[in-house]
Design goal:
The structure holds two protein chains of two kinds.
Chain A: H1 7-23, H2 25-34, H3 39-47, H4 68-81, H5 83-103, H6 106-118, E1 122-126, E2 142-146, E3 149-160, E4 165-173, E5 183-189, E6 195-200, E7 211-222, E8 226-227, H7 233-269, E9 271-272, E10 275-276, H8 281-309, H9 315-344, H10 351-361, H11 368-382
Parallel strand pairs in A: 1-4
Antiparallel strand pairs in A: 2-3, 3-7, 4-5, 5-8, 6-7, 9-10
Helix pairs in contact in A: 1-4, 4-5, 4-7, 5-6, 5-7, 7-8, 7-9, 7-10, 8-9, 9-10, 9-11
Chain B: E1 5-7, E2 13-14, E3 21-22, E4 28-30, H1 32-48, E5 53-57, H2 63-72, E6 76-80, H3 90-108, E7 115-119, H4 130-138, E8 142-152, E9 155-162, E10 166-173, E11 176-180, H5 192-200, E12 204-207, H6 247-260
Parallel strand pairs in B: 5-6, 6-12, 7-11, 8-11
Antiparallel strand pairs in B: 1-4, 2-3, 8-9, 9-10
Helix pairs in contact in B: 2-5, 3-4
Classes of the chains: A alpha+beta, B alpha/beta.
């Protein structure tokens, strides 16, 4: 057992941190207010290959497809600067680009991966509907066969990056009976006629990350765009999310780290009752608890990534990582605001943004409750 | 181009007992000025399809900075590493670098047409002596403190910083050596793909003193003309007072201090 990062991973961390401090930190507050990713930062992120992190070089990617710890480190460092960028990169790679690479046909890879790798097209994963949230089997969007094509009708909501995405993985119902066995994942090009972006959500946190309603009206998708097999979409969606959760966990680790660092800095600077507040035990205990939470989240995340990279079963581990990390980020952000007192509530300090961003993590990509369900059902099925 | 691994400046400490730099646990970085040299080399590579080779001398850990240079996009990385090179001053260093450069030039059969790019000075030693000494060793023209460069076939036209505000424009034929200033460009970050390639597809080539056929009296400590007698923090003789407040208040307080101290 070895906890040290490889030289390569150290450089990924070091470079991403420096890059993010230079290009993401200065615009994070403004992006949050504008509810938009900064354009210059977007171009820089493209140049740095972050959109192609999990894709091999042959498709224009950075080549981290077998180094999920490296990928986690990258997402963590991006999120430490701006969690909205963190979720954008985690989702784009984890539940759009990587699944096409992992489960797609060679034609699908040739058609879609290069644009995703370069960030010329952003990817989105579209599962959630008004009546299909935690109950993912309740998907109502239909895909009906018509010759060599499928015609998609329905509406997806809360799709991360939905409004800016041009390559969509859409979970649709392809049969009537037992819905879980009648679902299929389609790769839909965002320029297909009949597809449109509906309402852009105005949300609590990670506001610079686009969250939108997506409308499908008679959208014709060629049958060769089915990802995996017809009727196996539910299983496919779950597999995609298994991997995606590692990225979300990493995003939460980075956010928690940012909250912790801000708290340590402030505790050393802020003087009350004649000494820096960090000299008071009440603050010290908070900081220690925050640090423990963030560090355990990091270890859970790297462990899930390690299992993935070694070809082992990692579904439960990624649920644990996502659960622990999102709750750690919330705890750290909560502590950070409390330590900052009145200033913590003000926009002048970033911790109020961390607080809003952190709450998102406990809900999206499977709520904390759903993670507990996945973990418990795994244990009850296979034994602890 | 030449690159040096240096300790991150903000982290440098000196062991008060031994008067030497504490290296343990200190993050090592590419000398900031050398990043500009790297960036310039990479721009020339993109514009003129030239081959860029980075050269460094140091212990095996210095491989890290060469990996970063590879990640940024250079073609080849060579590390001069040997216990016999240790303790070198600028003279012994430039002699060793020159041996390696001659060896590489022979292999590439390009003894006529090459450009050596160095950072003007390193943040640790801060002498700025290696680039000029290296040019002398190689017997080629040198232009130091370059802040702009134009390469056209077999010659370069450079802007050299002269005194505080003046610029001298110099043209010279290749081969030549230049040392560049920090404001010549803004070094790029290595991309993710670059980092992956640097670790998985590229190699750092090692040269030791045997490979260079080096004369042991001209390298390392033996070849060094200078000797460090002592290294120390300048002693703080007065306790500075920081004045706070508006400009007006601060000036008033300052005048009062000066009057009290009978300076005027």
């Amino acid at each position: 057992m070895d906890f040290s990062l490889s030289e390569k991973q150290k450089m990924l961390k070091n470079i991403t941190r420096k890059f993010a401090e230079e290009f993401l930190v200065p615009v994070a507050k403004e992006s949050d207010a504008k509810q938009e990713l900064d354009e210059t930062a977007f171009k820089k992120m493209q140049e740095m290959n972050y959109f192609g992190a999990c894709l091999p070089e042959e498709y224009g990617g950075a080549g981290l497809q077998n180094d999920t710890i490296g990928f986690s480190i990258v997402v963590e460092e991006i999120s430490r600067a701006d969690a909205a960028w963190g979720i954008t990169i985690a989702v784009h790679n984890g539940v759009a680009a990587y699944p096409i690479y992992k489960f797609g046909t060679e034609d699908q890879k040739q058609n879609f991966l290069e644009d995703l790798a370069k960030g010329n097209k952003v990817g989105a994963f579209c599962l959630t509907e008004a009546n299909a949230g935690s109950d993912a089997g309740g998907v109502q969007l239909t895909a009906v066969k018509d010759g060599d094509e499928y015609i998609l009708n329905g509406t997806k909501i809360f799709a991360t990056s939905g409004g800016i995405a041009k390559t969509l993985l859409v979970v649709a119902k392809t049969g009537e009976k037992d819905s879980r066995r009648q679902m299929t994942v389609f790769i839909v090009d965002g320029d297909t006629p009949g597809y449109s972006v509906g309402v852009k959500e105005d949300k609590l946190g990670v506001r610079a990350s686009n969250t939108s309603e997506l409308v499908f009206e008679e959208v014709r998708v060629p049958q060769e765009n089915i990802l995996g097999n017809l009727g196996e979409g539910f299983k496919m969606a779950m597999k995609i999310l298994d991997f995606g959760r590692i990225g979300i966990a990493a995003q939460c680790v980075g956010l928690g780290q940012a909250a912790l660092e801000a708290s340590v800095k402030y505790s050393n600077e802020r003087v009350q009752f004649g000494k820096p507040i960090g000299r008071f035990q009440g603050i010290q205990w908070k900081i220690a608890d925050m640090a423990c939470a963030v560090e355990s989240a990091r270890l859970f995340t790297y462990k899930a990534a390690y299992l993935h990279d070694n070809g082992e079963d990692f579904g439960m581990a990624s649920s644990m990582a996502k659960l622990v990390a999102s709750e750690a980020a919330m705890q750290a952000a909560h502590g950070a605001v409390q330590i900052h007192g009145g200033y913590g509530l003000m926009k002048a300090y970033p911790v109020e943004r961390y607080f809003r961003d952190a709450k998102m993590g406990e809900i999206y990509e499977g709520t904390s409750e759903i993670q507990r369900l996945v973990i418990a059902s795994n244990l009850l099925r296979k034994g602890a | 181009m030449c690159v040096k691994q240096v300790p991150g400046v903000s982290e440098v400490r000196i062991d008060p007992k031994t008067n030497t730099l504490v290296r343990e646990g200190v993050l090592s970085i590419i000398n900031p000025n050398d990043r500009n040299a790297l960036e310039l080399a990479l721009i020339l590579k993109e514009e003129h399809k030239v081959e860029v080779i980075a050269l460094s001398m140091g212990p095996p850990q210095a491989e890290e900075v060469l990996r970063e240079a590879l990640a940024m996009g250079i073609d080849k990385a060579i590390l001069l590493s040997d216990k016999a090179f240790a303790g070198a001053d600028t003279l012994a260093t430039s002699h060793t670098l020159a041996l390696a450069i001659k060896k590489v030039l022979k292999e590439f059969d390009s003894e006529e047409n090459y450009l050596i790019i160095c950072g003007a000075q390193a943040v640790d030693g801060d002498t700025g002596q290696v680039p000029p000494e290296l040019a002398e060793e190689l017997g080629i023209p040198q232009i130091t403190y370059v802040q702009n460069l134009l390469l056209s076939e077999d010659k370069i036209i450079v802007e050299r910083k002269f005194r505080a505000t003046e610029i001298v424009v110099i043209e010279t034929k290749l081969p030549a050596l230049i040392s560049v200033l920090i404001d010549i460009n803004k070094p790029r970050y290595p991309s993710m793909a670059g980092i992956m390639k640097a670790y998985e597809k590229a190699n750092v080539i090692y040269f030791d003193s045997m490979a260079l056929n080096a004369d042991s009296s001209k390298i390392g400590l033996n070849g060094s003309m200078t000797e460090v007698k002592k290294i120390f923090f300048p002693e703080r003789k007065v306790n500075p007072i920081m004045l706070e407040g508006s400009t007006e208040e601060v000036v008033r307080k300052l005048c009062q201090y000066l009057k009290d101290d009978k300076i005027f």
